[in-house]
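Question (not urgent): is this output format expected?
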Amino acid sequence: MAAVWAPVVGHLLLLALLPSTSSHMVFDLGGNVYPTGEFHATMHIGDPAKPYFLHVDTGSNLTSLECKVGSKVPHPVYRPTRDKPVPRNNPLCNALHQDVGEPEKPHKTVCNYEIHYLDGSWSHGVLIHDKFTLPSGITKPDIAFGCGFEHGGSHETTTGVDGMLGLGRGSVDLVSQLKRNKIITKNVFAHCLSSKGGGYLSIGDENVLSSPVSWVPMAPRTDRNHNHYSPGPATLHLDTKSISTKTMEVIFDSGSTYTHLPEGPHAQLVAALKASLSKSLKEVRDPSLLHPCWKGPGGFKSSDDLKKEFKSVMSLKFHNGATMIIPPEKYLIVTGHGNACFGMLGRKDIGDMCIIGDITMQDQLVIYDNEHGRLGWRASQCDKKPKSKSDIFSRM
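Got this back:
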């Protein structure tokens, strides 16, 4: 009988020794670059908790839910109660406005906001708070987030999500709030986006800091680079050829599906890429509206087929000597029509910035170490989720 009870007693002792909060949590991600256009985590919000799909966005420091009645979202629209708004004089409201700026028409009693995103879209709403049920299910902290009533602009996201999971470099982002609530001990998180679809988001895991990765210091926060994660300036190369003598300010933005380049370097890159291709590829138009696109001799069925026809490798070389390698499967997508389309877009309105989107982050563990002010990345199998302490409870 003692032998039967020994494992149970062991588990009970383990539970007694573990803290009531989790210092490390892992969320499964759904979605893909194409055709979904986003990666999302399922967050359980409210009491009783209800599930919502939130687009993982390192370019926004505010988590938000769509609250407009009639919105086309996967789950029933979140309905806040009257006792949930964050007051206008609350420190969280002041912190939010320091991050995103004061709204044109500030409310007298509640904390309203206006956010403008890198892709030109915008959102208006009210800051509220509600309970978030975390993976362990034990702690349900109150987290402040935006309840959006108006939005517009050229959203890259689809109606496949209920809102945004703000992980940007700010004061009211989810990770900062979890640390203030003593749910995690370190302001560290990492995401791994799989080219097969899905992936995972890890929050508070200190083990990733000792991983063999390419580390680059975070660029200082400035008026221009205020809420964004930037490893600083880099030069763009195609194979051994430098695309431009000018450096670009790189920004990591998981809220962008594709990677964005200034018009000049983009045109130079496309010209250099075309010159490197074999005559077996034919340039075609594709319903995805991406450009340029190519048809191969037998068409393309998966990213593995890209390697047979596209040999050129891109790279971003940073000031400290670190390099981000960008093989064909991280700058091309295979569409539903069997074409290979270029997943880097040229833009007039971003100056000399290079916005690294999901397509280029695929199959890489990207680490945001706010404790030491650095960013890191390494090749990884993102379809294999690591274990967390919460797994102990899920197996009991």
